[in-house]
Amino acid sequence: MSNVTLYSISYDLSHAVVFAVGSLAYGSWRAAIDSNAVVTTIAVLVFAVILLAASMLNTIVLIWYERKLLGRFMDRRGAMHVGYAGLLQNFADGLKLFRKHTFAPREADDLGFYFGPTAYMVSSMLIFGILPISSGWNSGALPLSLLLALVIFSFAPLFIFVSAWSSNNKYSLMGGMRSAAQMIAYEVPLLLAVVAVVLVAGSFDLSTIVYEQQNYWFWGPLVVALVVFVAAMLAEMERIPFDLPEAEAELVEGWNTEYGGMLFAFFMLADYLRALVGSILVVLLFLGGWTLPTWVPSAATSFPLAGIFWFMVKTYIVFGLFVWVRASLPRVRTDQLLRVGWNRMIPLALLSVFLAALLVSARCLPVFGCVPSLGG
Amino acid sequence: MSDIWINMGPQHPMTHGLWNLRVRIEGELIRDVDPEVGYLHRGIEKISEDRHYNEVVTLMDRTCYVAGLSWEHLYMLAAEQALHIDPPERAQYLRVLCDEFQRIGSHIMWYAAFVQDIGLMSPFLYGMRDRDLVLDLFQSYTGARMTYEYMRVGGVRNDLPPGFTHQARKVLDWLTDRFHEYDQLCLGSTIFHKRCDNLGVLSGKDAIAYGVTGPMLRSAGVKRDLRKDRPYAVYDRLEFDVAVADGADVTGRYLVRMEELRQSVRILRQVLDWLDHHPGPVLADRVPRWLGAPYAPVGQEGYLLKRRFPTGVGFSSVEEPHGEAQAYVVNQGGEHPYRVKFRSPVYSNVSAARQYLVGYHVADIPPIMGSVDVCVGEVDR
User: Which positions ≥6 away from A245 have C-beta within 8 Å?
Assistant: First the structure.
């Protein structure tokens, strides 16, 4: 795999800029400017900005991707008019929302009304600072990065509920209630499925989990956990068939009924950010992250940023499956959803933990060979 | 959450039109409902009193936007009875052709809206796509896709264009395959059954007590179809079965409508065969000339006013896609009908909302009301 990573690019960029600025200064100033600390600080900032821009851009492309894919499933074309094949349609939509006046209902609680979407958006973007996208991704190198990502991911029901209740609208309140109940119910199987992965990988660090999948991907041995994780993720992302909090047929638009303009755009964007995070987590935990199977010729992984490329390909395929589900399934009802969550998902998740524990105690996986980290 | 009243409507995605369903909910449970209609009242019955007999046709198209031709037929049956005019045989077959194609269009439209209500996105567009073929056929012989103004007192406006029956048969073949696809998409899905089975149950006894008709009544196992029970036009010469189901629930209504689509195709094939081999006039000879003119010819106004026509009363009932529609036309000898009165099936079906909504969940309202197939233009008239 190539040594060029996104961080090394931003480090080189920062170094070049700092060196150029430093060469204009004298003596001790030059040393201060040209020091490693300054270069690293700026490199991290550049990296963060690249990450922010990339995640936003990715989200917008993701929306385009979903629209086109949904269009194909529905025997139509999707967005076609703005830009080539409608690529710029979402930018036009975003611009339209940006220009709109933001209304708040007179009886709404202003603090919660504005705080909710903002916090929802910010917390969703925060996760991107943690997720490793390719090898040598230092920003995510925390020993408990998986746990941190899931903790931030589970902030969302609170913010949704705050914005729903402060909208002072009956539909919003019902949507918020549903959303909170649903997310809490599916948080448990989600975490249990993750526990299965953690047991086999032996680490909460996402980079380590991916490293452990060098020889085989986890979706094979942990297929039960994968099923539980994907189903729970669908519920967490509030997509059909679990999109009851914003079931437009009965709740108009659910918890974001009263939102318009940029605040609505925040919700929309954060929803897709969360969908992106969900797909990324599936890829990281079960589909080997940025690695490819060993039988793939090395030419496929030797070009610059190959890791990121293959990672994005996998992410988009996973998200495409979510879109496929959306195009072909009806919506379930709240009580049915909760019943499935508590009565089926949690036992299934426990089963997956049990199976993972069995695999670990056997030290070897029957079909997939021995686990290096478990051997000694 | 204690009891709260919420207004679902007049602007709400569930209503598919302009009406208001007031719902008292306790948490997610429905405790009471109160349908409010009348937001779309245009006074069609009163306006009809001020129009020539043929001009009422335009109003009939606007009564129900998905079943305009069925309402035209309904009105024409009553008006012809009141005016003592008999349409020629070919015109009657053409009217049945209109009726059944309209039923297909309406039921496909219902399917599209209904699956959208339970959250199925793709079949909505499949439905709209296939309905377009029916609209294309309408366009080819009535000139319009929605407001047709095709029927006249004493027959229909014009005959079919050449090659129509061939085209229509091709559309029917295509649609037959699609109906199979629709069933796979809905009945093949476990979530669909979880959502729709035993939902919105309205027993046959209650349905009759509330005057509920159409697919809602037949889904309760009551075998009542005006095309069989009180045949109008040429329905007594055509072979078809009355679609019934026994669930009295949302799935039952789905099954009834799907079966009706297939029976309509069966009827249409017979009608097309007949039309191929029996050319003839499509408008009666003895229609008074002024009936065709929007206004009395210049210089003849006095003649029209003085002239006396035989008086009469007409009553008709038609199995419209939504249920049994009835019309009553009083002719007192003038240019205009003296009084016109319609009975809308959906009005009765919606009135019984309390019977089939209370006790279910809020999330059940869209599928249940969707299965009623509300057409507000026809409720409010």
Answer: A160, A175, A176, A178, A179, A182, A238, A251, A254, A255
Cβ-proximal residues to A161 (8 Å cutoff; 6+ apart), any chain:
A176, A177, A179, A180, A255
Contact A330 B126 (CB under 8 A): no
Q: What are the φ/ψ torsions at residue B8 (nearest 5 degrees)?
A: -95, 90
Q: Which residues of A touch B124 (CB under 8 A)?
A: 74
The Cα-based distances of B197 to A216, B190, B201, B243, B249 in angstroms read: 44, 10, 9, 18, 6
Backbone Cα Rg of chain B: 21
Which one-letter amino acid corresponds to residue A298?
Answer: S
User: Rounded distance, CA A189 to CA A184, Å?
Assistant: 10
pLDDT tens by residue, A230-244: 988 888 887 777 777
Residue B310, Cβ density class (10 Å: 0-12 exposed, 13-18 middle, ≥19 buried): exposed
Contacts of A80 by beta carbon, 8 Å cutoff, 6+ apart: A86
Task: Check residue B100 and give its pLDDT.
Answer: 92
* B362 secondary structure, DSSP code: G
Chain mean position to CA A252: 26
Judged by CB atoms closer than 8 Å, whether chains meet at B361 and A248 is answered as no
H/E element, B320: strand B312-320
Residue-wise over A213-239: b if at least 16 C-beta within 10 A, else e?
A: beebbbbebbebbbbbbbbbbbbbbbb
| B238: enclosing H helix or E strand | none
Q: How many CB pairs under 8 A join A and B?
A: 81
At A17 the three-state DSSP class reads helix
How far apart (Å, rounded) are the C-alpha atoms in residues A180 and B93? 59
Nearest by CB to A241, from B14, B119, B365: name it.
Answer: B119
- Residue A160's pLDDT is 86
pLDDT in tens, B74-89: 998 998 888 888 888 8
Q: Considering only alpha carbons, which residue of chain A is nearest residue B12?
A: A252
State the pTM of this model: 0.84
pLDDT at A15 over 60: yes
> Which residue ranges make up each domain of chain A?
1-52, 59-94, 100-375
CB of B122 less than 8 A from some CB of A? yes
pLDDT at B173: 92
* B307-330 confidence digits (pLDDT tens): 556 778 889 999 988 989 999 998
Asked if the bond preceding A366 is cis, omega within 30° of 0, the reply is no
pLDDT, tens only, A136-186: 666 556 788 888 888 888 888 888 888 888 888 888 888 888 888 888 888
Q: Give the pLDDT confidence score for residue A5 in this predicted structure.
A: 65
**For residue B342, is it left (φ>0), alpha (ψ between -120 and 50) or beta?**
beta
> What is the ipTM for the molecules in this complex?
0.77
Range name among A192-206, A211-225, B219-233 with the lowest pLDDT average:
A211-225
Q: What is the mean pLDDT of residues B96-108?
A: 91
- Phi, psi for residue B119 in degrees, rounded to 5: 95, 5
Q: Which two tokens stand for residue B195?
A: 């959502």
CA contacts within 13 A on the Cβ side of A70? 22
Q: What is the pLDDT of residue A337?
A: 84
Interface of A with B in 84-123 (CB under 8 A): none
Determine if the peptide bond prior to A241 is cis (ω within 30°): yes
Cα–Cα separations (whole angstroms), residue B25 to A248, B22, B133, B200, B329: 18, 10, 42, 16, 43
